[in-house]
Amino acid sequence: MHNGSVSEWLKVPLSKSGEGESSPGVRISPLPQEALSIAYNADMSWIIYALLAPVFWAFSNFIDKYSLEKNVANIFDFLFFSSLFGWLFLPFMVLIFGFPEFTLFSLLPICMGILLVYSYGFYGKGLEVGETSRVVILFKLIPVLTLVFGFLFLGQTLTTTQFLAFLLVLGGALFVSFEKKISGFKLYDGTLWVLCAIGIWSIIFLVSDWTLTKISFGEFIIFDTLGTALAGPLMLLIPEVRKQVLLGWSKSTPSKFGWFFANNVTDLLGQMAIKKSLSLAPAAGLVTVAMQIQSLYVIALGALLTIMLPQYFNEDISAKAISGKLLGAFVMFFGIYILFINS
Question: Taking the model in full, what pTM does it have?
């Protein structure tokens, strides 16, 4: 479980000792070296899961891109199929972790699972028209938005240094979000859609971290999977959405089911890895920093897929494009690192 003393260092008003109690009072941050020492002395297996999750998600990002271009009829078709395999995975989760006891806190992972599927609508629209590696770099906004939402909704403090780090990350995000045209600068296609998804994911991350102090990892995964499974049937309650889903279903092929199955497996493995990391890490901030390696995975994987399978994937792998993405990613990572050591 989490270490309560590092919760204080992160100014999170929670006890991470596993007792599920709030930690009242004003936090006094120790020096960054002390915070890092606490993290070093903690169980470091969390970092393996935190670095592994982005590997699964990097593959999932490109499977999503391929599916949106080749396999789905519309965005609601994409959401429904993203939810569908939750029913297949749910029995396996129960077999692995046991049948959970339902409590009031169980509603939170269920709602987060539903919200996660619906957030894929914004992500899907952005990925449909944007470049995969450029979209994923923007994911680095998640840690700073998580901090901002913690400040707004959980009463966490926000120092001047943290605010400056936020501006640095935002600057890096703007750098990779705009392209220069003859008429001036304009946002890359899909940027606004992706920013909407990132805002939702930041809220999900914050709520998930808090919920894991109240229920076990196994219970969370089961109810979270149940939420993703319920998201699809709930969509059918809206007549126009139901019509779009049925249109996509009528055009389904075995290949479509295969790609979505592969995507759901990789995404589920990523979700399990990151939730396991959250349950083991001394602080959520450590996990968010480690996750930032995903942009490097995606830039490298995008270049590799474009070279090996150009008929399916088409990333801009010119030296100018890749150097620009790497520079933007580095600026954002540096801001997140400053945010981490000064929290």
Answer: 0.71
